[in-house]
Amino acid sequence: MEEQELTELCRQGNNRARKELYEQYSGRMLGICLRYAGDRDTAQDLVHDGFLKIFASFDKFTWRGEGSLRAWMERVMVNVALQYLRKNDVMNQAMTLDEVPETYEEPDIGAVEAIPQQVLMQFIEELPAGYRTVFNLYTFEDKSHKEIARLLGINEKSSASQLFRAKTVLARKVKEWLMVNDR
Question: Is the CB of residue 134 less than 8 Å from the CB of residue 166?
C-alpha cells in the first residue's frame, strides 16, 4: 500500500491499514526508541505507546509527499521517548563521570566506519541516560543546545557538557573496540 493511501485509511480507523503501518515501520521506530531508552523492554513499551499516540493523532497529520508519514512518526516516537525520560527525571539523576578528561581524542572517521553499526548503536545504548539523550537529540535530531535545553528542562551549558561527556565515553569505547578487533 502506498504511503498516502495508508495514511488515509489509518485516518479512517481501518485496522488492516494500522496493522500494515505497524508492520512496515515498527522496526525503525524500535531503533529510535532504543537510542533513547537504552534497554529493549522499555523501548518496546515506548514503541507501543508511540503507535497508540500515532493512531489517535492521524487527524493532526498532513501528508506532504513521500516520506512525510515516516518523518512525522519518527517525531512522535522521539517525543514519546522524551516524555518518558522527563517523567522518570533521568536528566536529574546522578551520573557517573567515569573520570572524564578535559579533552578527548576524536577517533579517525575511517576507523569508526570499520565498526559495525550495531556495535556503535550498542555503545550509544550503554551511555548514561542523560548523555545518551543529549547525544541523540544533537546528533540524530539536529537539535541545538538551546532546543535541547528547552526540551529537557536543563540549561544550555548542561546540554553542551553532557554532549562532550557522551562523545568522550564513545571515543574511549571506539578506541578500545578498535584495539581488540584490530582492523
Answer: yes
